[in-house]
# Entry
Amino acid sequence: MKPFDYQRATDADSAIATVSRDPEARYIGGGTNLVDHMKLGITEPGKLVDITRLPYDSVESLPDGRVRIGATVRNSDLAAEPVIRQRYPVLAQALLSGASGQLRNLATTGGNLLQRTRCSYFQDVTTPCNKREPGSGCSALEGWNRHHAVLGASERCVATHPSDMAVALAALDADVLVAGPDGQRTVPVTELHRLPGDEPEQDTVLRHGELVTAVELPSLPFAVRSRYRKVRDRASYAFALVSVAAAVEVTDGDITDARIAFGGLAHKPWRATAAERALHGAPATEEAFRAAADAELAEAETLRDNEFKVPMTRNTLASVLRELTQQEGS
Amino acid sequence: MDSEITLRVDGRRETLSVDTRTTLLDALRERLGVTSPKKGCDHGQCGACTVLLDGRRATSCLTFAVANDDSEVVTAEGLAEEDEPHPVQRALLDNDGFQCGYCTPGQVCSAVGMLDEAKSGWPSYVTEDLDESVELDEDEIRERMSGNLCRCGAYANIVTAIREAAE
# Structure
């Protein structure tokens, strides 16, 4: 590992100034992804600015019904937070489906959003990878691509985003609060991550030096009926093959509102707007659930090893919607 | 680049100068001679390096020592009271909860942290009702302990031991 300088940030402004002026500097939170990448040689920062002791470690219910989650709140604490368990079960479940107990105790909200793909070629510095080394090629296109993308991929990159939490946040229409050298801005979480296109090395729209300070959840009362389901190769402690985050509102047997996002399918958490449109005003029936899945998956393009993801997504979405709408009816 | 840090390890105060690249696991094992946390995968995937960091279970291989200045670290070795094993350790002994034993110190720390989490009412992915208190049945224990791998496959007895220790 390349030697690096370590600084513990005591205030956000100086942390942002330090990282902004040094292209080799990086923020570090829980470190569960970054430390691993430094061991693997994927990234070689010259300086780490530790932001874990900045005052971003609380979850606040705001007067307008929104909930603000500080960027350094640990994944385990967020999942255990009563307001999240009661008002946004999809988010608690997504967090609890990710990683392991000991990793969730370290991992932060901001770091979870900014974690990088687990594509095995990205993580193996001996193989070509356009995300790790732009222009070197994509080993997954013709390689082992069971875990790779079926929506929104490019010929440069077929990696998937690994976060569960971000999929729930995408379904909930969360906002990401960002501070940078030029002030603060708000980025909808659905616009934080990019599709790979010609620049797969750019995971997000954040610029160097920008710091995620918080995530805000909208009030969204019907999210009390929401759910996250993750399908994977083993029962626990594995990344998603397919995951579904959903919240639905049912009135007199018809779906009046729905929020759906998919994980494991794309370079970003995939907000399923076509499925949502298909469900709007539809009866809560198996046919409607499957039609919604088909609407979203019409554009899916599969690779050698991941054809199974299309029917698996259809089945998982139908199963989650069935469960949520039965819950509503009972 | 070296940095001076102070750790409290199993009740002892330790001040040492570490290269910033040193993980907490390597500082414990190589610098302080505290070898109960084990290096299995060194990538946070096996849980053998689990310690209690400021009271919470954590993988010591995925955090730099320098980031843990002033922290309290308890390893499996520090859980025993003089000659009396911790109840989780006792239960693993009584139930043959290991074969080779390499993963055991990590299993012990993880179980102790996990039991505290359950006592605080933290749900898991398999908890049906997020508002209800948690009952640690076999499914709950298996889900909550999934970050600790045992290549001998002693899981059945590990689960039994943890259930016993939870009572």
